[in-house]
Known about the structure:
elongated; alpha+beta; single chain; about 475 residues
Amino acid sequence: MGRALDPELARHVARAIVGRLHERGHVAYFAGGCVRDELLGLHPTDFDVATDATPVRVRELFQRTNEVGVAFGVMLVADDGSLSEGFVPGLRVPSGQQQAGQQAPTVVEVATFRADGHYSDARRPDSVRFSDARSDAARRDFTINALFLDPLTPAEPGAGRASGLQGQLIDYVGGLADLDHSVLRAVGDAGERLTEDHLRALRAVRFSARLGFEIEQETREAIRRHAADLRGVSRERIGDELRRMLTHPSRAQAAALLRSLGLETAVLGDPALAASGDDFAALAGLSIRGQESEPIDFGVALAAWVLDRQGGVAGVESRTPAEAEAFCKSAVSSLRRSLCLSNDECERLSGVLSTVDALLTRFDSSRVSVQKRIMARAGFSGSMRVLEGVEPRRVGPIALQGKNLADDGVGLWPEPFITGDDLVASGMRPGPRFKGVLDEVFDAQLEGRVGSKAEAMELARRLSV
């Protein structure tokens, strides 16, 4: 898949690539998701080109190429300046990305038309043969992703939705009709498509949720039949698909589809995380504030999903503190393995789960220092986002208390009056009580019971006796 920041620039460069291939006697089209998105009125920034030119020929025709899958006919072509020549920007580059857009060249994936052989590893074909556009469309996953567009030929009059395109649509598999009816359908035999690559089951969920499309019945039944096969897919690939689902505003719809299609256990890989909740309030709630104006971190979204699957607020409040701590450790450990989570993702997931538990079970009854410590956690902001969906009536009072504590003259997390070095300098010997003394002194500072370094040192001396 190619990459760019400016959708108009991406299209301009991709069209220039198609033009150069045409000039040298080759067939070339826009292919796949970029065609689908243009038909939906979106502005894709990733453009793929499919052509009858071989990788060797592509390398001859373009100055800057990179072989990313030459055995499968896939090359990356980067703009060397000639492909973007004459471009006049129109659509605005997303805020905050202009500088990055100036530094990185536009890259387009150029793939040779192919027909795939047998998939023995349920991921990649054992062999491919270079072919034509019709054969290339037939080996793709879903009809809406198997469309081609000739950007150099005007659209045919009276072509319905396709008449508004900047180019002529080529549809061998009925993808346009499925787009018109908001249907996600496998190309050809749904069972065969899923057998070739079991990850297509998750791709179906992602596309259906994101686009608001209904999965066609045969495709839906094939996904259910092959749900267990997903366990054979690498956990890294499954994790990548789930990241794309849960960081999108359609995350709750995706989770509901995973459950209805029997994919949850295969995705999570742990029966201990069996669902007990009936809805996805926490996931849905993440999309409420500001129409997703603040991007949702994957660790936060994953915590919301775990909360929904464990019965929401009732599930949290039913656990003792020891049970809550054990559950958090177990869930993080299991999801790390199942989804190949990074250390940062594990920390965010753990932080949100433990902070949600603290906010729901003990925040209101805790002393000021404990409340401040909870609010100073890295997972506090994400936890409040999660609670907005499942327990909104609790969010307002917690936020108000946070404002009051921030304005109490001490602050939520001031610089400590004393450190371990101060205790050592005063003659105290480090030992088992060292950390406890520092914590108790800092609690006193948070609660306003000590107001200076001298008072803090005096309290530390009393506590260390």
